[in-house]
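Input/output pair, single chain:
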Amino acid sequence: MADDDRLTIAVDTVRALVADQFPQWAGLEIRQVGVNGWDNSTFHLGEAMKIRLPTAIRYQPQVEKEALLLPHLASHLPYQVPEPVAIGQPGHGYPFSWSVQSFLPGETISATPSPNRNQLALDIAAYLTVLHRVPTGDAPPPGPHNFFRGGALSVYDAETKACLMRSAGRIDAEAAAAVWQRALSSRWTAAPVLVHGDVSPGNLLLRDGRFCAVIDFGCCGIGDPACDLMMAWTFFDGDNRTLFRNTLRLDAETFARARGWTLWKALLELDKPDLQGQAQALTVIAALIAEHQAETGGRGF
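Output:
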């Protein structure tokens, strides 16, 4: 996936879009959120709404998909999700459709200094259990719209093997390749379930220290729930990782595929210039290898 074509969107452009297309909100304050995402640039619109603008054409299909699926999810989940309010059109030099949604109060887990990881292991596992039982409705199957979340890992086989070759010397590439091959050898054989597609500390909100809401369903779709389990290694460790896994009650095959999704993402982080992100990725990869070897007795896959 190309990274250098992402747009930087100025607040003046957002003000012009709102004034032109939604003049009833032209008097509301517009300011960028404190921590922005990757697929979208997000701005506060007053106190109760937010504006999400795709940063590249590959993220534009998420706009109408979220508008369709968020009300369905809200009617089935015991957690808050954003409410779609309006869809804007290209203009003022901005080339894509964009969305207005309700703004949910709270702090992301990533912005919380010392979250209670044991409690979050229980809460997030409970959320995923409920999400994966929501009727699939009109949610689409895996595809470019969600970068194949919920689909077969084989779509990223060539990319992952290229990353493994580049990372030789920084990680145990042979052991990491065994993690990847184990993941590829497994398939989700049950009916497809609803997946969020990007379950991460930046998309989960806390209020008074407790999990309360989920944002950014741009990668939502239906398929294999393994893609939703990456926090087992990117956020949890030790006892809280075990608690998360045990509470989910998913089989070892699903967690093997989840290790594959996590490995793919971690290897991509090694190619980025962020040194802290690289260090975290190395820790994650080591944990994936150790767990895989513990489960297989070091016999490859």
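The first strand starts at residue 30 and ends at 32. DSSP finds nine helices and ten strands in the chain.
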